[in-house]
Amino acid sequence: MRYRSLIWTGLFLSGVTLIGSCTPALPRDAGTSGAGTSGAAAVQSGSVRVVQASNPGPRLESLTSSLPASVRGRILAQPTQFIELLRKVLAEPRIFTELVDKEHALPADYAPADLIRLRDYNVTINRTDLELRKAVMGDLMRMVRAARVDHVELALSSTYRSYSYQKTVFAQNVAELGLKEAERESARPGTSQHQLGTTIDFGSITPAFADTAAGRWLAAHAWQFGFTMSYPPGYEKLTGYMYEPWHFRYIGLPAARMEHDYFEGIQQRLLVFLHENRAALDRLAGS
């Protein structure tokens, strides 16, 4: 999320511990649930046992009933392909697709255990103290190199923020903009995707970024490297935030593919779907 003048005034909070020693109060990284072959029909043919998988269509129809018709239609048109991709999404670390928004907050003491300093990597940064999860770096560096091939330089301006840092960011925005406007473009502490350590603000952190070479390149290609725009234009009612063309969260390669192919590029819609149906999707993927 945007934090306006803080980045340019060089605000650094003394005493803020970026890498906490606490154990995150979040679900551990999870893969598929191991639901086995429940629902499969076994058929004996002589000495050969043939297992026929159950039809996933009816279960998907139920799970997708609350989705927009256009999204639901894409999923139901390719149920087998969707479930194959779903298995890959669920095999990724759970934190990549953990729902963090105005209604779903992280614990105040949550901090990733694998934060690394970006100044140690061949990437353009606008501040020397930027940190990101090590698990993100492989795909980030591939994205940076791909952009450079296209003569585009991606400058990183904000990455991981602790709960206490975000508290100061939000207070600064309230002081400058008033509470109502601040809540459109700044997250309360605990509800910022930046606390995950998988989110990046690029470039100027202003609406003008959308019309830059980097902004256009990211909008077109970031999903191919596991990063997707969290707050696209026209979806403030769904996301809770104004359009932010600079704000990209890493959700992993399979989830980014799922968002692109089935959820029309709307990250919030995918994350809510996964959050609300996680147990049922685990069972479906394991069937």
Question: Tally the helices: what do you get?
Answer: 12
Query: What CATH architecture of the domain at 5-31 and 92-251 do you see?
Result: 2-Layer Sandwich
How do the strands line up in the largest sheet?
Answer: 4-6-7-9-8
Q: Which geometry do the CA atoms define?
A: globular
Structural class computed from helices and strand pairing = alpha+beta
For the record, what CATH class of the domain at 5-31 and 92-251 applies?
Alpha Beta
Q: Cα-atom Rg, whole angstroms?
A: 20 Å
Distance between the termini: 39 Å
Give the topology string: H per helix, E per strand. HEEHHHEEEHEHHEHEHEHHH
Question: Which terms would index this structure?
Answer:
single chain; 287 residues; alpha+beta; Muramoyl-pentapeptide Carboxypeptidase, domain 2; 5-stranded mixed β-sheet; 9 strands; 11% strand
